[in-house]
Design brief:
By secondary structure, this protein is an alpha/beta fold. The chain contains eight helices and seven strands. The structure holds nicotinamide-adenine-dinucleotide (NAD). Nicotinamide-adenine-dinucleotide binds next to α1 and α4.
Amino acid sequence: MDTSMQGRVVLITGTGGGQGRAAALAFAAEGALVVGCDVDADSHAETTRLVAEAGGVLTGAAPVDLSDADQAAAWVDAAQAEHGRIDVLYNNASASRFAPIAEMSSEDWRFTVGNELDLIFYTTRAAWPHLVAGGGGCIINTASVAGLRGSRETGLLAHAATKGAVISMTRQMAVEGGPQGIRAVSISPGAVETPGTAAFFADPQIRAALVSHNLIPRPGLPTDIVAMAVFLASDAAAWVTGCNIVVDGGMMAV
Ligand SMILES: NC(=O)c1ccc[n+]([C@@H]2O[C@H](COP(=O)([O-])OP(=O)(O)OC[C@H]3O[C@@H](n4cnc5c(N)ncnc54)[C@H](O)[C@@H]3O)[C@@H](O)[C@H]2O)c1
């Protein structure tokens, strides 16, 4: 099975975060030329250091706020200018705000749409012509089980809406990208322990509740998700497109 990413140009968003950092390390270990970005400059710098320490290549920029169309396009175009092509766009970054329906402000709703949905549109729109010019490539979008099921916890309205939209926009990317050689797949993680979920997992009751949904009784690790992303981006997944892959320790099975 050929999962090598040797020499492939892989753009990963949110490389300062839990899954983004693990992705940068994993793709670089497979020989990819990784280009990352994050709105948080310090955490992206730490990932850059870790990848270099492991002997890999991670370039990119931070801070980059991908909810701003111009910043997103500039980051993509800089990657194209640096490497002359783009093979993979891994839309991993996101930020969400949570509140019960009646208490959610319009600002928090717009923030969530901007930082979970707009940013995927902006990077993908910018990368599309480069992918087409290069004969195709792969787009991986990070959705969530929140896009597939309701939650007894209140507060997930905006997050559920955006992650459901990530799944459906991925399908449309695959349809429109097919003739151009572009594959598009979404990954829906279950509950993964990362800086983004640290506050939830720090509460023993919430931690136990999150894990109790799983058939494999532990939180997800960033590497559980990223292993799937590496497979999906590789030639081994050449016949995989237009679908949503659930990686959730069995949560969705019950
Ligand atoms: N951790 C989980 O349980 C879980 C479950 C399902 C889905 N997901 C999804 O997985 C992905 C990665 O999540 P994570 O848990 O690693 O989160 P994380 O918070 O650890 O990392 C996300 C990174 O994205 C960056 N980011 C956010 N908005 C940005 C913007 N506008 N521009 C640039 N960078 C931005 C953040 O600074 C952060 O470093 C997200 O799309 C998240 O919704 C996570």
